[in-house]
Amino acid sequence: VIDIRKLYSDAGVFTYDPGFTSTASCDSTITFIDGAKGELLHRGYPIDQLAGKSHYLEVCYLLLYGELPSAEQLEIFESTITRHTMLHEQMVNFFRGFRRDAHPMAVMVGVVGAMSAFYHDSTDISDPYQREVASHRLIAKMPTIAAWAYKYSVGQPFVYPRNDLSYAANFLHMCFAVPAEEYVVDPILARAMDRIFTLHADHEQNASTSTVRLASSSGANPFACVAAGIACLWGPAHGGANQACLEMLKEIGTPDQIPEYIARAKDKNDPFRLMGFGHRVYKNFDPRATVMKQSADEVLDLLGVENNPILATAKELEKQALADPYFTEKKLFPNVDFYSGIILEAMGFPTSMFTPIFALSRTVGWVSQWKEMLNDPQNKIGRPRQLYLGNTQRDYVDIENR
Ligand code: ACO
Predict the structure, then answer these.
(1) Closest Cα to residue 203, out of 58, 361, 321?
(2) 127 carries an active-site annotation
(3) ipTM of the assembly?
(4) Which of the residues 42, 200, 279, 286 is marked catalytic?
(5) What does residue 94 show for φ and ψ, rounded to 5 degrees?
(6) Among this protein's residues, is 337 annotated catalytic?
(7) Which tens digits make up the pLDDT trace of 51-70?
(8) In what order do the strands lie in the sheet with 39-42?
(9) Are 190 and 168 in contact (CB under 8 A)?
(10) Is the beta carbon of 277 within 6 A of some atom in ligand 1?
(11) Which runs of consecutive H residues, i.e. helices, occur in 97-186?
(12) In a 10 Å sphere around its CB, with 0-12 CB exposed, 13-18 middle and 19+ buried, how is residue 99 labelled?
């Protein structure tokens, strides 16, 4: 037992909560999650209704401004975002400075951080107009940045945004169009892409969003804060999970290997975990996983990938894990990443693009939370305390006496 009053002379109320499992870092009106019920609401609207009836840019508006837009408001918002999709031409040189085989996430962290060097006129956070422009620029330019990071990694020329296409269709166009061939975006794939964006748009105070808030609590500019969020998202326990999940499904290979992997996941001496299973907040089905599962069926159907072995393995793994008391007792259910990787791969994305796509989808969440924080009169610099377990004061020992 540590007597905190002996450790710190100024000890008042002191909580020790590694991983923030029961400490709120802020108040917010954006997203509500009831993990036990498996409920996710944006500004009060259930995620399955938004994924089914709305589309990404409308959800962006909702997250940013708190209400669903009227038809006129939506038109103005969509055309504003569309007008900002181009990147400054000088940024092409910046992309070219990266190693040819750089991971697209490494490129995104660098390029988004560097936006503060290219767009000075929207870095003054004390000016509401500049804040607004920065948020539009981030949402609009992120698909271009992610697509160009991809194009660079495969050695193809950059494809410029097309403002006659929807947000999702334009992203697919920038990723998959090549100069020598005509590329027409399939509306079903554009819809599936839009749904992936929508399902990842915000998720209250997850690690990357908390990173954005903490970075911005010092007054850092929005591009630097979002770059910090992207860096955090890169980790396999967060945004990297769908890549890790798909790799795991491929490693499992066929349904007959599943029992071996389930046994490994349960073995405390084996660090292996079932990727795409479990969530810090959801102790029930992740509502996003249910929508994602339907989308996986639709996309694979469209692409004629009948009897897709990875999807078959995923479905069987889900079935066997949910029949196992280890997973049900620990409340480990499939999360959003369990099926998203299968869809993205079927669309033609390499695994290295999975996390960049998550980052571009989550940008609106980061930006909405950042704006909310700046408008909060209680906003102050984030400065967690620590529980110090090191040596107490002692005297310096000269090197010859050590
Ligand atoms: N497979 C096997 N066992 C697991 C798994 C899993 N995927 N997840 C948790 N457990 C076990 C742990 O071993 C632990 O067991 P114990 O109580 O016997 O020690 C118990 O369940 C609780 O695990 P914690 O790590 O303490 O739970 P936490 O809430 O901190 O972790 C996390 C949540 C990181 C998501 C975890 O479930 C995990 O690593 N899952 C796999 C990675 C993944 O899919 N991440 C995506 C998250 S969703 C997103 O970022 C969009």
Answers:
(1) 361
(2) no
(3) 0.93
(4) 279
(5) -65, -45
(6) yes
(7) 999 999 999 999 999 999 99
(8) 31-34, 39-42, 45-46
(9) yes
(10) yes
(11) 104-118, 128-154, 167-176
(12) exposed
